[in-house]
Design brief:
The complex is a heterodimer. By secondary structure, chain A is mainly α. In chain A, 76% of the residues lie in helices and 3% in strands. At the A-B interface, helix 1, helix 6, helix 7, helix 10 and helix 11 of A face helix 6, helix 7, helix 11, helix 12 and helix 13 of B.
Chain lengths: 327, 305
């Protein structure tokens, strides 16, 4: 039963990935400028140009080029080579930049969960009090304030004015935090990018957590639990929280996707060398193989995350599984 | 058991749904403020040429020893690093922001409504196929697609004309913004399809296109308006973000997103260059978001939390 569910989900993800890889490939080839110009420079002789065209496989039909590209990725993990930094394999660029983005996104998600879930729970438990109202007002603000506004404002306030945090950077040795004299994996220059990226998700999670818990608190079984002698706190802890947390799980998945595309802006803003930063850089340098590889990577990760969340949700909530099987 | 008997209910005045909608909206203070803000913004966008003291591209360079210039009698909010009047650029930014988002929402809503209606009304294999396509578009990180497309068109360098860049902006955002609308309309159409009045129309031989236009579309209007309002908020943000990255509106057009980017190096000495466009952008996105929520509440009070 659960195996069938997982397989069905996987089967749906594969065609999506193929369509996306084809789209990124074709779009990149539609560019009005000739990639040979970028590789060889505009003054190259016709012979050199022809040689380069052949070397990069640009003289073959586009469908063949695409299939070779796909084959390279699947069999050798080869995403081609960069145009602008001659000979640099894109896979190496991915290996260095992907962990940075992953770390940033995970930190932002942890920040969002750490702030959003307690805030949402408290707002629901103290429904209609001042705390609830202030939290919800903050939520609406954070949902609407885009990261290209929030980031610079935080930078202005905390880094430029108060001088508490570095303006930009990532894991710069001089920004390392020492706990009891020992080096730790934490750096102060990670704080602003993490908070900027996670703020919106924190707000969304808080709002969702609140409404989910409010829904659960109205359920009959909770009233029964209290009628049978549980205190309200016990009833909430034992019965309500677990059920209310479940729907929040799906939001975490969609939020991870949000964080991934949000990292493009945050990385550019704070000069964090992740896939977003590298993509925008390669856009400015018209380095299509890099953009293409990064886009494909981002889309793949996005889909895999959604897939994982779907499957996890199927495990946790049997109702989802049976609905899927019935459909 | 209280006072109300079946006879009493029958005697009650019939409620006109549209007047009930306006009554609920009027009682929503936040919604009114947002509506006022959005109307004012639309007016500014329309009259930007008249209201703005300077042209958005005019560079007042000779009068200042150093740029950006601080506020003075000539430039009420000062100038940017190229000597352009900040106030004028803020006002023109409203025009760019609203124009781009409205054009794009027109494109994306048309695609989304058409596909959603067909999928929902037809059902079966058509539905499956269209919804699979929607899923693929949904799975693609939308900003990435727009970045990719804009980057490619721009590869022509300075030779690329401004209209082509605008066209790409509209097309790339329009192509990624429709799946939400398609899903919404499909869901609604699926439900409406089973209703008696549609069945009755079909029974007397009304053609499908007519049923779609006459019976489905008007009943979809409410949810569609809510979705459009929220889409506009998202698109204003998308335009600003793309322009921030240098991939949106071409220079010298004024975009709030680009203004924020250009203000970054002067954050220390001229923080207001950053604060004003940031505030304009955040307030506008917030107004449309609030308005969308309020419209939803007013259209369907059952959804209110």
């Amino acid at each position: 039963m659960i195996l069938a569910f997982v397989l069905k989900r996987l089967a749906l993800a594969v065609p999506t990935l193929i369509v996306i890889s084809f789209l990124t490939f074709v779009i990149a080839r539609l560019a009005p400028s000739d990639p040979v110009d970028i590789i060889a420079g505009e003054k190259a002789t016709p012979e050199t140009r022809a040689r380069i065209r052949h070397e990069y496989g640009l003289d073959r039909p586009i469908l063949i080029q695409y299939l070779q590209y796909l084959q390279g990725i699947v069999t050798r993990g080869d995403f081609g080579t960069s145009f602008s930094s001659a000979g640099l394999p894109i896979s190496r660029l991915i290996v260095t930049s992907f962990p940075v983005t992953a770390q940033l996104a995970v930190q932002a998600l942890l920040f969002a969960l750490g702030l959003g879930i307690p805030a949402g729970i408290l707002a629901a438990l103290y429904h209609n009090t001042l705390f609830d109202r202030i939290t919800m007002a903050l939520v609406v603000m954070l949902v609407s304030v885009p990261s290209i506004v929030l980031g610079p404002l935080l930078m202005l306030a905390l880094a430029v004015r108060l001088n508490w945090l570095p303006v930009s950077g990532w894991k710069d040795a001089q920004n390392q935090i020492f706990l009891i004299g020992l080096p730790t994996p934490f750096y102060t220059d990670m704080v602003l990018p993490t908070v900027t990226l996670g703020a919106r998700s924190a707000a969304l999670i808080a709002r969702f957590m609140r409404s989910s818990l409010l829904d659960t608190l109205r359920q009959d079984y909770l009233r029964t639990a209290i009628a049978k002698g549980f205190s309200r706190a016990q009833a909430v802890r034992r019965h309500a929280l677990k059920n209310a947390l479940l729907p929040v799980l799906t939001v975490v998945g969609t939020n991870f996707g949000l964080l991934l595309s949000g990292s493009f802006i945050v990385e550019t803003l704070f000069q964090v060398p992740g896939i977003g930063f590298e993509s925008i850089n390669s856009v400015l340098k018209r380095d299509y193989p890099v953009i293409q590889g990064m886009a494909l990577l981002a889309a793949t990760v996005y889909i895999l995350i959604n897939l994982t969340v779907d499957i996890l949700y199927g495990f946790v909530d049997p109702r989802v599984r049976s609905r899927e099987a019935g459909a | 058991m209280s006072g109300s008997s079946p006879g009493m209910t029958a005697l009650r005045e019939p409620v006109n749904p549209s007047s009930a909608f306006w009554r609920r909206l009027r009682h929503h203070r936040v919604a009114l403020v947002c509506l006022l803000y959005v109307s004012a913004l639309a007016l500014i966008a329309l009259l930007a040429d008249v209201l703005a003291p300077y042209d958005y591209a005019f560079q007042d360079t000779r009068r200042y020893a150093s740029l950006p210039a601080p506020p003075d009698a000539r430039h009420l909010l000062g100038t940017d690093h190229l000597g352009r009047d900040l106030l004028s650029r803020l006002l023109h930014g409203a025009r760019v922001s609203l124009t781009v988002s409205l054009v794009v929402v027109l494109i994306s809503a048309s695609i989304g409504i058409t596909l959603g209606l067909i999928a929902g009304y037809r059902g079966g294999r058509t539905d499956l196929l269209l919804m699979r396509a929607t899923d693929v578009m949904f799975a693609f990180p939308d900003l990435l697609f727009a970045i990719l497309l804009s980057a490619i068109v721009r590869s022509g360098g300075t030779a690329v004309p401004a209209w082509l860049i605008f066209l790409t902006l509209f097309a790339s955002l329009g192509l990624v913004a429709w799946p939400g609308m398609a899903r919404l309309v499909r869901g609604q159409a699926l439900a409406l399809r089973e209703r008696e009045f549609v069945e009755a129309a079909r029974a007397i031989g009304v053609r499908d296109t007519m049923i779609l236009r006459r019976h489905l579309l008007p009943n979809l209007l409410g949810p569609v308006i809510v979705q459009v309002t929220q889409d506009v908020a998202g698109l204003i943000l998308a335009e600003a973000t793309l322009s921030f990255l240098g991939l949106g509106v071409p220079p010298p057009f004024a975009s709030w997103g680009r203004m924020i980017f250009e203000a970054l190096p002067y954050m220390h000495s001229h923080p207001m260059l950053l604060v004003y466009p940031g505030l304009a952008l955040a307030l506008t996105v917030m107004a449309f978001n609030f308005l969308g929520d309020a419209l939803r509440d007013a259209l369907d009070p059952r959804l209110r939390q």
